[in-house]
Amino acid sequence: MIARDRVINIQLWCCFVVYLVTNMSLVETRLEEMEPRPLSTEKPKPDPPRDVAKERKCFHMSRDQCPTDGQKCIRVDPVSVFCCDVDSAQFKESLGFVMTQNTTNLHVLNASIEELDVSQAVFRRLTSMALTDGNIGKIVGQFRKYSSIACLNISNNNLSSATLESAVHRPFAYLFTLTVLDASANNLTEFPLSLVQSNRKIYVDLSGNNYLPCKNFQKVMESNNSSTLSFLNYERTFCALDLTFNWFKDVQIVQIDHLRVQKEVNASCRNIRPANANCTCIPDRLELLGGEVTNSVAVDCSMRHLKEMPTNLPPNTARLNVSYNNITSLGPVSDDPTYEHLRQLLVDYNDIASIVELEGSKFIDNFMVFSITNNKLKTIHTYVMSNCFFTTGPSFLIGGNYIHCDCNTEKVVKPWLLENYKNIPDYKSLECEDGMGSVVDLKEFQVCHTPRDWTDYIYYIIGLEVLVLVLLISKVSYDYWVFKTAGYLPWPANKMPRLPCDWLCE
Questions:
Q1: Cα–Cα distances in Å, from 185 out to 49, 56, 153?
Q2: Euclidean distance between CA atoms 141 and 129, whole angstroms
Q3: Do the beta carbons of residue 178 and residue 203 sit within 8 Å?
């Protein structure tokens, strides 16, 4: 009896040792995940803005390799299974026939599944799992702990962020070995952050999800783990950028490389002076500057209570908005070299009294939009803008200003406005102070007043002389006619003394 107990104990110990040996790798893997990593003081190197050189794809079969004998799933090789055109019931039933303990690769093409339960034990041993070009209503459950999936392809399944992952439902939380995720061509609107929170190198393809918020990409790129994340199809990955224009909002779809540029722009934006300006900067567009194609920058310093123009702008600043401030001078536009590439300047609703400081500046020679509406301009120095409107491109807006109007305004400014009306869309909104109305409606007699001298009456004198001469000729002619017909001279001709020259008339 004692010998029998000893044999049983020995057998139990052997079983325990075999169990430890067979499961030691999994235990070590889990312990490795749980072991805290030392914090690194070095900044991670930025991810290169291009696709990885080596193409990474999950196990994938083409449509022409689908089963043709009525089956839905076939075993391609001892470790790979391929399914086509299955619904929820067929998917579960077919996998039960073809999946074995040795199956590590699965590709399901065009599956119509209302709810995909990823907690099924059949998925636990897979290293490559692909469900593509189908329609998955919702992913439920959670991949089991210690799942071996290294490559997951769920592309083109009409998935949304609500059906893929939420704060409560995280089906991919235990995919510690995942290195490739292809979620392209879906309708995702939230970045699956839980998939990139490990310290392993992971490659993600989110191309075709154009409404993923750019702020999520930005958060990932600026996180400590940004060096472990690479984007497949980098050039074809876009995101939705929220833009605010005063009182309304817009969404612009941009390539994610825009975010790398944005990160650089944000760093230079913090150097704008004065230090409390808190301006916002965004890449504006690609432009040819200095013979090279580069990202121009748009800077918004509006409504910042500024009393002077900002300086030390980011490189390649092409657009600057300083509206709704208390700025009184445009001097830095001419003096600060960071204004060199400025093409659009908006200084509406400020306290600027003159644009003469811009004379000879590079901005005046090259601007496309210059808006200085609702300021305190007292006069328009047309000579400053003399060479600006050779083409129909530049736009100069000056409405809402009340300038001092005099004869020079009527003789110089008014004709200049009418001549360049195509480049000055609001030319009719430039007003005269003292309630005299629009500049273009000025009349000469309203503003042109000069002291009179005797030359102002010269035409009246000449007219009077002509009238007297005509009357005199008429009188002489009448007297001559009376003398010829009646033989006497009428009064007062007969009272006039004879002159030596009278014989000429006899």
A1: 21, 17, 11
A2: 16
A3: no
- Sign of the Cα torsion 446, 450, 452, 456 reads negative
pTM above threshold 0.90: no
Which residue type, as a one-letter code, is found at position 87? D
Mind spelling out the 3-state secondary structure of 24-37? Answer: HHHHHHHHHHHCCC
Residue closest to 191 by CA, chosen among 203, 178, 209, 208: 209
The identity of residue 408, as a single letter, is: N
| Cα–Cα distance for residue pair 409/439, rounded to 1 Å | 8
Of 197-211, 239-253, 325-339, highest mean pLDDT: 325-339
Q: What is the pLDDT of residue 62?
A: 94
Spatial separation of the C-alpha atoms in residues 379 and 353, rounded to whole Å: 8
- The tokens for 497 are 């003394």
Number of C-beta neighbours around residue 107 at 10 A:
23
Long-range own/partner contacts, residues 393-396 (CB < 8 A, 24 or more apart)? 393/368, 394/367, 394/368, 394/369, 394/370, 394/423, 395/368, 395/369, 395/370, 395/371, 395/423, 395/424, 395/425, 396/370, 396/371, 396/420, 396/423, 396/424
pLDDT tens per residue, range 65-85: 999 888 899 999 999 999 999
Query: Is cis: bond before 315, omega within 30 of 0?
Result: no
Q: How far apart are CA 125 and CA 145, in angstroms?
A: 11
Distance CA 318, CA 289 (A): 10
Phi-psi region at 319: left, alpha or beta (left = phi > 0; alpha = psi -120 to 50): beta
CA angle 179, 183, 185 (to 5 degrees): 150
For residue 280, how many other CB atoms are within 10 A of its CB?
16
C-alpha gyration radius of the chain: 45
**Which of left, alpha, beta for 149 (phi over 0: left; psi -120 to 50: alpha)?**
beta
Return d(Cα 401, Cα 467) in angstroms, integer: 53
Q: Which two tokens stand for residue 486?
A: 């009646």
Give the β-pairing of 238-245 and 248-255.
antiparallel
Q: Which two tokens stand for residue 379?
A: 């006069």
User: Three-state secondary structure along 348-388?
Assistant: CCCCCCCCHHHCCCHHHHHCCEEECCCCCCCCCCHHHHCCC
> How many angstroms separate the CA atoms of 421 and 392, rounded?
10
The pLDDT of residue 205 is 93
